Amino acid sequence: MEVKELSKVFKAMSDETRLKMLACLAERKELCVCEFQELLGLSQPTVSRHLRILEEAGFLKSRREGQWVIYRLKEDNKIQMQLSRIVDEILKKDPELIAFIAKAKEINLRKRDV
Question: With a threshold of 0.85, does the pTM exceed it?
């Protein structure tokens, strides 16, 4: 991994919102933009910007499913996966994040809209 790529990885991990997104995806496996909006209370452009940063850093992959863009952790990037696991283990001890992840497990806006 080159320095420029490594810089993107650490930039992606330097934001609390993006760390929450990674932790939720580690538990939920996949979420769409609208589900992140509901969880985080952020606008669609803001959520999309955070997701783009995570995707460009190699943490995420996306797919289109009808009207939704679904995001999940990219499992073939060993460095990002190791960092995600470390962050996940650290953050699981944070009571606020534990409640946030519990909320993420319950949310499913895609089924409501179908």
Answer: no
